[in-house]
Known about the structure:
Helix content is 14%, strand content 8%.
Amino acid sequence: RRVRVCSSGCLDLCAHGVAIAVMPDGVFYGHVTETDIPDILDSLERGTLVSRLVLSDDKFDPVPMKRPARE
């Protein structure tokens, strides 16, 4: 399995610390630290999840944040 690492804009997950989105799997990891990276890479090779880091659906705000109006 090939992996590409790229930066992104805001994922609206600031309350969950550093977040990583794994696409096209649709998995989001939260509260990620540098020490979690080997586990995440291993899980990508095996096609598994790092369950302790997975953000469940209830962690996502169903109403998207609105930007303040510009004056």
